[in-house]
């Protein structure tokens, strides 16, 4: 069911009324209306278009999936597209939930693709700052953007913590290298998804901030500026995480190379040690007369040579940390 709210003169006076009454309320210049649609069909959006006189391209934008975050200005309204994001620390997946908002002089219409976009959190922000309702539709837009940007910060923080945990596992010899690689590439993929959502939102929030500067509600500017500052922090944070992921990948390759060098040194050292008894026994195994041939002393001489030489090589390699 669509959710609706009516503010008049900065006060919440009604909610839960039918969408068909929206046009009646908008006839009053002191009224401010919000209503929300979740996964609407074309017929429902056509009704909204008729009620508010929305542009055809704006309606098409509401029906388009996976579009870029943006704000588009039409003659008598604006279209705002944004995404709230969630991060699952178990699967390392970032999920984006789209919302499209139609902004008119005294109305805000939110169109969600699914329930993943928590509209209750947006409503909670409006209820937490009811004194801002006197600023009109800017008050509603501020609450919407505040929630969206907060999800970006929360997802960025969770992704940062996941990368730090991965960094700790890099130097754990008991950790599975295959699992580390899978986790690294999963987090890298999630970071790319997050950046595709976060970076364009800086332009969107900045456009809303500039438009408010040119409007009549300058007192709302500090609140929008706060949202913009959070947006900048999210953008800068994702940039640093991109470098962090690159560092982790380089470190993994370096560690693998170092481990391979250690293994090669160990294998080479043991091969050198094993080559000594092979050479001695091969010499004493020749079918020709030699000193000690056919005598017990020849056997003990070969044993002493094998043990002494092998022990000497082992001590040398151990001292050089090859074993």
Strand order of the largest sheet: 2-1-3-7-6-5-4
- CATH classification class of the largest domain: Alpha Beta
CATH topology of the largest domain: Beta Polymerase, domain 2
CATH superfamily of the largest domain: CorA soluble domain-like
Provide the structure class: alpha+beta
Number of H/I helices: 8
Please give the CATH architecture of the largest domain: 2-Layer Sandwich
Oligomer: single chain
Describe this structure in words.
The chain has a seven-stranded mixed beta sheet with strand order 2-1-3-7-6-5-4, sandwiched between helices. Helices cover 60% and strands 16% of the residues. The protein is rod-shaped, with a radius of gyration of 35 Å. α5 (137-170) runs parallel beside α7 and α7 (221-284) runs antiparallel to α8. The chain contains eight helices and seven strands, in the order ββαβααββββααααα. The mean pLDDT is 84. It has 323 residues and is an alpha+beta fold.
Describe what is shown at a glance.
This protein has 323 residues and is α+β, with helices and mostly antiparallel strands. It has helices at 22-26, 42-52, 56-63, 119-128, 137-170, 177-213, 221-284, 296-319, and strands spanning 3-8, 11-15, 31-38, 70-73, 78-88, 93-103, 107-112.
């Amino acid at each position: 069911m669509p959710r609706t709210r009516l503010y008049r003169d900065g006060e919440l006076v009604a909610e839960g009324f039918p969408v068909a009454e929206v046009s009646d309320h908008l006839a009053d210049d002191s009224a401010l209306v919000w209503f929300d649609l979740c996964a609407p069909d074309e017929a429902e959006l056509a009704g909204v278009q008729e009620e508010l006189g929305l542009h055809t391209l704006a309606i098409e934008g509401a029906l388009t999936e996976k579009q870029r975050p943006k704000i588009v200005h039409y003659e008598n309204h604006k279209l705002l597209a944004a995404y709230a994001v969630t991060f699952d620390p178990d699967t390392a997946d970032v999920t984006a939930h789209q919302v499209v908002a139609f902004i008119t002089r005294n109305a805000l219409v939110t169109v969600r693709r699914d329930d993943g976009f928590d509209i209750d959190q947006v409503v909670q922000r409006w209820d937490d700052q009811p004194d801002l309702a006197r600023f009109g539709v800017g008050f509603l837009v501020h609450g919407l953007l505040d929630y969206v940007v907060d999800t970006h910060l929360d997802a960025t923080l969770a992704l940062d913590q996941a990368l730090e945990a991965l960094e700790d596992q890099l130097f754990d010899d008991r950790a599975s290298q295959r699992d580390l690689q899978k986790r690294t590439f999963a987090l890298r993929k999630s970071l790319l998804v997050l950046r595709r959502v976060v970076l364009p939102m800086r332009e969107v929030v900045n456009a809303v901030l500039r438009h408010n500067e040119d409007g009549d509600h300058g007192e709302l500017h500090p609140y929008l500026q706060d949202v913009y500052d959070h947006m900048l922090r999210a953008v800068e944070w994702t940039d640093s995480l991109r470098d962090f992921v690159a560092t982790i990948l380089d470190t993994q390759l370096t560690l693998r190379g170092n481990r391979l060098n250690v293994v090669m040194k160990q294998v080479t050292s043991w091969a050198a040690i094993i080559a000594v008894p092979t050479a001695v026994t091969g010499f004493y195994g020749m079918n020709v007369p030699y000193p000690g041939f056919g005598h017990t002393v020849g056997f003990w001489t070969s044993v002493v040579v094998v043990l002494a030489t092998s022990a000497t090589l082992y001590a040398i390699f151990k001292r050089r940390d090859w074993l």
